[in-house]
Amino acid sequence: MPLYNASITVTEFVIGGFDETKRPLLVGVVILITYVLAVLANMVNILFIIYDRRLHKPMYVLICNLAVVDILYMTSASPTMIGILVGGVNTISYVPCFIQMFAFHLGGVMEMFALSVMAFDRLVAISYPFQYHSFLTNARTLVLAYFLWIFACCFVAVLPASLVPLPHCSSTLKYTFCDYAAIMRTTCVDPTYYFGMVTIILFFILFFTFCFICLSYLGIIYFVKLSSSSDKKKIGTTCLSHLIVVACYYCPLFIRIVLTRLGVELTLEARHGLMIGAILGPSLVNPFVYCLRTKEIRYKIFKIFSKVETSQ
Length: 312
What we know:
Shape: globular
Strand content: under 5%
Radius of gyration: 22 Å
Distance between the termini: 72 Å
Structural class: mainly alpha
Order of helices and strands: EHHHEHHHHEHHHHH
Largest sheet: 3 strands, mixed
């Protein structure tokens, strides 16, 4: 039953997720360094793809889209955590908190959508190599990316829409930034129904995207068996980068789900650690994977460094 009589007017939230953290400054500096490196690496990927016309291809448009998603996903939460740990600022206003929650969950949903459409891109490229450029043009890829962003926004809009009408009985968030669970636990209502609704939505997205990726790779494996040994090596090299990125994002998610289903009760610090790792880990790994595994981007980086060395 809602406890409307006990409700309070909230103008800002107090973020208390790091109250028990030992050596907060050290943790904050580590998050800061990781965040800066990840943003710079993703920005470099984006700039390479934008300014090199030879990289204006569907695959690189999708890599660029993934980099934008990673920057959004990190930036939705990392500056707040850094501000708390390094600057000691543990409050956030009501509206910015909801904006942060929306951006964070939008980044998470878009990460799954982006990885799914990249798997589809590899499937088409390997299954129909000669028709690939007629099937997936840059224009069609951009339209697909825009559609996914709009679709993700519609899904995530359910979260603030369900929270805004609810009264609050507390202004303290138990977690490290504004996500749905943290804000919901400050309300005066029984969260069971709302958590159940969000779990169904997120499970549907997670199940659909992961199954779609798996089915895409089953199709790729089928065509690999029909290919020559030289083509198999080329296909394996092409798909390995994407598989590493998929594993980096989905593994922390499945670890949390499995531990929860097994009845393992995570401490708040363990939960926070898994959450921070799930946000920063893939976003840091992704650009370096594509820089090192993608021939054109790797060649461009080596070319820049060779010019610097010769100029010295």
